[in-house]
Design a protein that fits this description.
By secondary structure, the protein is mainly beta. 35% of the residues are buried. The protein contains 3 helices and 12 strands. Strands 1, 5, 6, 7, 10, 11 and 12 form a 7-stranded mixed sheet that branches. The protein has a 5-stranded antiparallel sheet with strand order 2-3-4-9-8.
């Protein structure tokens, strides 16, 4: 599957404290679907999710609606291993003109794991632990809510790309990736989903992340 460019539209200002306003504002955003491209067929327990992206200047807005059964995650403070402890949505961001990239996790309870890697080789650097890559200061604004009937959850993210990458300009192309860990009741392992056309399951294959431009 060819990885096409996500053309992310600019939208007017809106209230980020109001879920109906968020959904209305991002309704025209670039749609992104989560699936399992590395498999010939979807897992029987796979469930869907749609994400939309929009921007204003260098601020990137993201609204995710994820089908789920009793969404939850056990982490209680930032920068714990969110992907090991329950439902998690991951956002990866990379300005291709530089080597460093970011991996950001959000749970249904709006806890975060924020990681910054200087380059792809960092993942295999000897003697390094998760703490070597975590960032304590908040990198973005986020809101989450779980459906009243526990049938899914939503995520809103506002992140300034010029804060992550000093000198980033709206005309600058970049790459992104969404990964999902869906811990369904009764399963020993999570169901994984991604928007990238991975040929093998590895969320850090940056050349297969979605290309994007702000328009």
């Amino acid at each position: 599957m060819k990885n096409s460019t996500c053309r992310i539209p600019e939208i007017p200002g809106f209230s980020t404290d109001d879920w109906p306003a968020i959904e209305t504002a991002l309704a025209t955003g670039c749609p992104v679907q989560l699936t399992q491209h590395w498999r010939e067929t979807l897992e029987s327990d796979w469930v869907g999710g749609e994400i939309r992206l929009a921007h204003r200047g260098t601020e990137l807005f993201i609204h995710a609606k994820l089908v789920d059964d009793r969404p939850s995650n056990r982490i209680t403070v930032w920068n714990q291993r969110a992907w090991c402890e329950g439902d998690t949505l991951e956002l990866f961001l990379w300005d291709e003109s530089r080597e460093n990239y970011y991996e950001l996790h959000i749970t249904p309870e709006n806890q975060r794991l924020q990681l910054h890697f200087p380059d792809p080789a960092s993942l295999k650097a000897p003697g390094k632990t998760l703490a070597d890559w975590t960032i304590d200061e908040s990198l973005f604004e986020s809101r989450t809510r779980v459906n009243a009937d526990q049938s899914g959850w939503e995520v809103f993210i506002r992140i300034d790309l010029a804060v992550l990458y000093k000198g980033f300009a709206p005309a600058q192309p970049f790459r992104f990736h969404f990964g999902r860990y869906d811990y369904q009741p009764g399963r020993a392992e999570p169901v994984l989903s991604s928007n990238a056309p991975f040929t093998v399951l590895n969320f850090h294959r940056r050349h297969e992340w979605a290309a994007a431009e702000l328009i």
